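Deliverable D5.2: sample structural annotation.
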Amino acid sequence: HCLSSPPSCFLQSLYPLPYLYLFSLPPSPSFCFSPSDEENACESGAVRLVGGETFNEGRLEVCFLGHWGTVCDDEFDNVDAAVVCGQLGLQSEGAIALPLALYGGGVGVIFLDDVDCLGNETRLEDCFYPGEIGESNCLHVEDASILCPSNETKVCDNGDVRLVGGSGNYSGRVEVCFNNAWGTVCDDDWDTGDAEVVCKQLGFDPMGSLALRNAFFGQGTGAIFLDDANCSPQNHSTLIECFASIDASVGDHDCQHREDASVVCSSDCEDCNCTNGDLRLRGGATELEGRVEVCINGVWGTICRNFWDGPDAAVVCKQLGLAQTDAAAVTDGRFGAGTGVILWNNFLCRGTEEALLECYHERPQNGTCSHLQDVGVRCSRFVCNNGDIRLADGPYDSDGRLEICFDQRYGAICDNGFGSTEAAIACRQLGYNDGQGAIALPNGFFGFGPPITTSRVSCTARSQHSQNASTTPTVSVSPPKLCPSCANQATPVAPMEISDWLAVLIHTKGEWRCVSTATGAASVRSVGPISTPSQCAP
């Protein structure tokens, strides 16, 4: 039961082994077998397909000396596969050779390597193969497999595509049909153009299609039919049109199912858990920071760090309803690596955009980014809206130094030109008695506050909101000099001017105060509390 009858066979004859004993040491290969059960022995030269889901697919095995062994995929092509299918009594035209132990690696001897059939042979053993039976430089991870055409009820037509494993009919692992069977597509060079053609073939708008790699929607089974797609949506309408010779391309790959290609097509899906352009932060210690993730067609993805900076982070914070002041771009991966697709890189925001996708951005090229380069942001809580006003440091809600918000910071208002009309508008904006009885108090009546951000406020009586007033921004750091006191009483008490002094009733305090109206004079003269305005007279 030996081939080449080496000394090892003589030793085995003395010490029979109950299992296959293999010596595969070219150039003098030799292997010996334990005696076969004649009932279960196979005929030398017979072939079979093992490990497939149907009778017409599987790992190719060939019989020699009553034992089954495998065939290496070196040089094994569709012509060789056609001879095997014909030997099995199946249709040979359209047979597909599949490499890399697609249906699992075999055991025992690898009988044949570098098989080269002409196509007119009736049995695999009639084909040319260099060397001797059992001479091979392969491992079982290189076992050849075959898919023969099936005469069963038609499942699909050659070139059909479908999406499997996604959250809807618009997303999933790409599978393509050949010989009435579905197989996958390898993600080598898989890019947006390829995804757009697949989505176009399925009837979706190709614009906005996403190409996903690394078995994003799970690994397929069975054949890997296509590899190295090179599609252009302008020139191709179906996936198989992307290959110069589809007959030569089917089954020609160097991939595993962990490299299965996937797509997400543009769709107004009802079952999407997010809307195109939505943002979220993940991996941060608070809701104010984290890894930036973007939703496209119901799928969350990340952003590569190339050119990620402050204006980009500011737009993210703005879109999330957080303060963009002091927004920080994070590129050191501190918020952890994301999963799934890396959607974009090279964002170039000005900072004025309302949403991140309004900024210029690009799709990353294959292999240029990894999830270790996912970007993040740090935002702050939203303080105020531009034009918001407040009263600060007063004893009651209706009194205080007037401050106005710009760029999410409150600043003081200079009292140049600020009078009762402006005070009334401010009080009206704050909701006090339609502004009636408002009093402008100059010269830091309620103390010094933040830097002055606005000067020369000028309102008309028709103004409804302080934002409608004419203002001049200033960078002065001088202390504020004026704030209104808003009276919410039904019948406000009007101020009484006595000489260069103004007797003012601070309603919420229930007392009169004396305020100078003379330029350069002290802001307040305390004489009391006083009971009547006349006590303000010098």
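Annotation notes: Helices lie at 7-14, 78-87, 192-201, 246-249, 310-319, 420-429. Confidence is low (pLDDT under 50) at residues 4-29, 461-512, 515-528.
The annotation will be released with the project's public dataset once the embargo ends.
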